[in-house]
Write a structure and sequence with these properties.
The protein is an all-beta fold. The chain is built from no helices and 6 strands. Helices cover 0% and strands 41% of the residues. The chain has a 3-stranded antiparallel beta sheet with strand order 1-2-3, with no helix packed on it. The chain has a 3-stranded antiparallel beta sheet with strand order 4-5-6, with no helix packed on it. The mean pLDDT is 93.
């Protein structure tokens, strides 16, 4: 068995292809002993990428100088793939919620 994802321009002995960028692929299989015996499995297999990550960020300022009651709220996450995590300190730490308040260690 040989397989190809570029319309037969190149063949490999396994059916596993990794590290592929988003594109349209022409997937074929052939008998390695009889290369003219081939089948197109999918002539237009499309690998897509998820939308770019985005979210809405809102904040409230502290009530007076020296207070620690400010907040940051990250909501309406979209894009990417899977679940989301949030950080307000340059990625040093992450949490599952987009709600940060003045009493959180990142604000102290």
């Amino acid at each position: 068995m040989s397989t190809s994802i570029n319309g037969g321009a190149g063949w490999q002995g396994s059916g596993s292809f990794g590290s592929l960028p988003p594109a349209t692929y022409d997937v074929q299989i052939r008998d390695a002993a009889h290369p003219s015996c081939l089948v197109t499995l999918n002539a237009a297999l499309v690998i897509t990428q998820p939308p770019v990550l985005s979210a809405t960020v809102n904040h409230t300022n502290v009530t007076c100088s020296g207070a620690n009651d400010g907040t940051i709220t990250i909501s309406a996450p979209a894009g990417g793939y899977g679940t989301y995590e949030y950080s307000v300190n340059g990625g040093t730490s992450w949490q599952a919620s987009g709600n940060f308040a003045g009493t959180d260690p990142w604000f102290l």
